[in-house]
Amino acid sequence: MNTVEATRSRFITVSEAARILRISRALAYTLIRSGELRAIKVGGARWRIEREVLERYIDDLYEESRRRSLWEQSEVASLSETSSFQNRNRSD
């Protein structure tokens, strides 16, 4: 293990995770309590988030965003095709 790996902890605080995500600490705690962001309690009251878990959470958000975008594009295409079809039928 090199020096950088040794000084980089496996876990981060809720404040650090909130800073990385650019959200408030309150929202980070809400995500943890809802189970959307996995965390563990250490020492009774201190929450910690594993770095890998946070990275997976971010990756999942990217994937969700990508899928939503593709879905919205397909819905828009379907709607425009439907309205074109309806307009053609009215003119007949």
Topology:
Layout: H1 3-7, E1 11-13, H2 14-21, H3 25-34, E2 40-42, E3 46-50, H4 51-91
Antiparallel strand pairs: 1-3, 2-3
Helix pairs in contact: 2-3
Known CATH architecture: Orthogonal Bundle
**Intertermini distance:** 75 Å
Tell me, what is the CATH class? Answer: Mainly Alpha
What multimeric state do the chains show? Answer: single chain
Q: What would you note in describing this structure?
A:
InterPro entries: HTH_17, SinI_DNA-bd. This is Excisionase family DNA binding protein. The protein is mainly alpha-helical and about 90 residues long. It has a single domain (about 10-90), classed as Orthogonal Bundle (Multidrug-efflux Transporter Regulator, Chain: A, Domain 2), CATH 1.10.1660. About 70% of the residues lie in helices and about 10% in strands. It is built from 4 helices and 3 strands; from the N terminus they run αβααββα. It has helices at about 5, 15-20, 25-35, 50-90; strands spanning about 10-15, 40, 45-50. It has a 3-stranded antiparallel β-sheet. A hairpin with a 3-residue loop joins strand 2 and strand 3 (about 45-50). The radius of gyration is 22 Å and the shape is elongated. The protein starts with a helix and ends with a helix. The mean pLDDT is about 85.
What's the quick description here?
The chain has 92 residues and is mainly alpha-helical. It has helices spanning 3-7, 14-21, 25-34, 51-91, and strands at 11-13, 40-42, 46-50.
